Amino acid sequence: MDNGGIQNIMRYLPVPVRRALAQLDEKLQAEIQEIRLRAERPLCITVHGTERVVYASNDGNSTAKQVPLWVTRDMVEQAFQAVCEYSVYRHTKEIREGFITIAGGNRVGIAGSAVYRAGQMMQLRHISSLNFRIAHASHDCALPLVQRVFAVRPQSLLLMGTVGSGKTTMLRDLCRLLGEKWRVSLVDERSEMAAMHGGLPRYEVGTHTDVLDGFPRGEGLLTALRVFTPQVMICDEIGTPEDADAIMQVHGCGVPVIASAHAGSWEELHQRRVLRTLLEAGVFSYIAQLSSTVLGKVETLRQVGT
Question: Which residue has the higher pLDDT, 198 or 144?
Answer without folding.
Answer: 144
